[in-house]
Design brief:
Length: about 280
């Protein structure tokens, strides 16, 4: 192969790599956000055959890290970025912009065979600290409670700690620790499987993962459903975010993708994923 042909091949490969990179969208997700991200990716690629959308699920904390380190274009998170994450981003020249894509309620769930129908925030907190250790103490059967929690990198765990494990008395916040006997799971799906297979277990998952195989409990007398999340009556709810480095340039595939939730089709995909759209298309 002569020198001129070699140079031409290098140019062609480099050009094709450049063009492909411009039509590739990468997302690193919280497992909670996973159903929306995958639905958006499948839809967008069906409408844009020349675009590749890659979705990975490594947790909210890792989604933030990936965005800060420049290894993903979108960090999908089930919580807002922490102050230390913003600081780390700015130090690397990254400017996180939050896009609120959907609303979610955190459902407290038990096995279908459990007779319990409702709990208060205080009761849940005492269960997770270990102060309440038997279902009999909250009106159930005389059986030891099995606590299911999430891994430390989970945005869902952060939400649970914020709304359930934190108390405020006379302006002073107290963060209560989850019992060391709690079993840690890596995703909403894994928590659900544990609840299905363990009669005396309790756990927490995004409402998009709730189905008839488990029982969601009313919390403070309010059921975890879309209407109650939307009207603010359900006490454990949160927004779901897409974070980008700066606001995407209008007209680019990245901008169109992160704006999908504002469209009629995007809102339909959010609903089909089990979550609540933040806007209603008109």
């Amino acid at each position: 192969m002569n020198f001129r042909i070699s140079i031409m091949l290098i140019i062609i490969v480099s050009l094709s790599t450049f063009l492909f990179a411009g039509k590739k969208i990468t997302l690193d997700c919280s497992p909670t956000f996973g159903p929306i991200a995958k639905a958006f990716a499948e839809y967008y690629m069906s409408k844009n055959k020349d675009v590749q959308v890659e979705v990975s699920e490594s947790g909210s904390g890792n989604g933030a890290k990936s965005l800060i380190n420049g290894t993903t274009q979108i960090g999908n998170m089930s919580r807002f970025m922490k102050e230390k994450e913003f600081q780390g981003a700015v130090l690397k020249g990254v400017h996180p912009v939050a896009h609120v894509v959907a609303l979610d309620g955190l459902a407290i769930v038990v096995n279908k065979r459990n007779s319990i129908q409702k709990l208060s925030i205080e009761q849940i907190r005492k269960i997770y600290t270990g102060e309440i250790s038997n279902w009999k103490e909250v009106g159930g059967a005389k059986k030891k409670i099995v606590i299911i929690s999430r891994e430390s990198n989970s945005g869902t765990l952060d939400t649970f700690k914020k709304f359930v494990m934190t108390t405020k008395v006379k302006g002073k916040k107290t963060k209560h620790k989850i019992s060391p006997t709690a079993e840690s799971q890596g995703s909403n799906g894994a928590v659900k499987q544990s609840i299905q297979s363990t009669e005396n277990a309790i756990g927490f998952i995004g409402i998009g993962f709730v189905d008839k195989s488990i029982k969601p409990l009313a919390i403070n007398g309010v059921k975890p459903n879309a209407n109650n999340v939307m009207n603010g009556s359900y006490p454990i709810s949160r927004p779901l975010f897409m974070f980008t480095n700066g606001y995407p340039k209008i007209g680019t595939h990245l901008h169109k993708f992160v704006s999908l939730y504002l469209t009629k089709d995007g809102q339909k995909l959010v609903k089909q994923s089990g979550y609540i759209p933040v806007t209603q298309y008109r």
